[in-house]
Amino acid sequence: MFNLGSLQIFMYFMGTNFAVPLILFIMNEIELLKLVNSSGYPFQLHITQLITETESSHGWNVISNEHSWESHSTGKNGFIDIILESSDIKYRNYKAVIECKKTENANWIFLTNHRQQNPLKDISCLHGVADNTRKIYIMDYLNLLVNPEAIESNFCVVRNQDDKNQKVTMLEGLCTHLIESMECLLNQDIFLARNNAHGNIESIELFYLPIIVTNANLVICDFDPSNVDPNDGKLKLENVSLRPVNYIKFKKTLTSQVKSYPIPGNNLHELAMFNKTYERTVFIVKSTEIVDFLDMFEITKVIF
Q1: Residue 219 CB-half CA count within 13 A
Q2: Which among 227, 286, 220 is positioned nearest to 47, based on CA atoms?
Q3: Pairing mode of beta strands 120-131, 203-214
Q4: What is the pTM of this model?
Q5: pLDDT at 80
Q6: What is the pLDDT of residues 150-208, one digit of tens each?
Q7: Vertex 170 angle, CA 168 and 171, to 5°
Q8: Quick one: DSSP state of residue 91?
């Protein structure tokens, strides 16, 4: 591509009649590149290549990207950015489903209660069991104890730094989309495993972990809710602790195809348990730290 000095010299010798279309083309190239960068695909391809090139250190293999899925129950469809499969014999039935989210100078601020800020090991994991006779099929969520430990948050405030007028958006929609795509992937895997088994296996058991990889700044805002001013609903700077993190667990009650109902009843305890059965955990990982995160990741216990 011409720089400005080269373009001026070129215009001097060739004349403006020839140079004007060239200027328009160069300007168009800039706009085209902006369009490419805004798509998020270069970011996704970079993350894919980064994980592929470091597979020998972390043991996660990229088995698919831009993977098509469709939910027959909701009618929704889409594409999973990246699917990883563990090459470690201990985790040979584990997959990680990754959504890549490129932002423009964004901050994702996770709210935490300072009384509950200790890092936690437990996460929810999608679990599927089926036999090759098509008579048994269980889809549920199990708790895993994993490393690395991570702060857990139920609330996230997202805003783009470059757009002062942009409305605050929430992470729930992105996580709900990821969870639904992961559950559809489990259905696909069960179907393929049964077809490929040819009666040679008695059962199939699979596990899935949802991860969002982003270039956004991940920040924890830790505070005591008793310090919120009841008159204006605001916190003062001296009453909060703000610090960046490389990864965090986002835990929320999300829409799911997996239906789990507690024992029927009408007391508050059972209503709370009903809500808890739909809690899902999604790891949010800063893009520059995804390789280190995968290096550190290990499952210490499965809680059935």
Answers
A1: 16
A2: 286
A3: antiparallel
A4: 0.84
A5: 97
A6: 999 999 998 754 555 554 457 888 999 999 999 999 989 888 877 776 556 667 889 99
A7: 145
A8: G
